[in-house]
Amino acid sequence: MADNIIPSFKASDLVIQLSSSLKRKPDEFDYGAVFTDHMLTIEWSESEGWQAPVIKPFENLSLHPACSSLHYSVQLFEGMKAYRGDDNQLRLFRPTLNMSRMSNSAKRACLPAFDQSEFLQCIRQLVEVEQEWVPRSDSVSLYIRPTFIGTEPSLAIMKPGHALLYVILCQVCPYFNTETQAVSLWADPKFTRAWKGGTGDCKMGGNYGGALFAQYEAQDYGCQQVLWLYGEDHQITEAGTMNIFLYWINEDGEEELATPPLDGIILPGITRQSVLELTRKWGEFEVKERYLTMAQLCSAIKQQRVKEMFGSGTACMICPIGDIVYQGENLHIPSQDKNSQLTSRIAKELSDIQYGRTPSEWTYLV
Question: What's the pTM?
Answer without folding.
Answer: 0.94
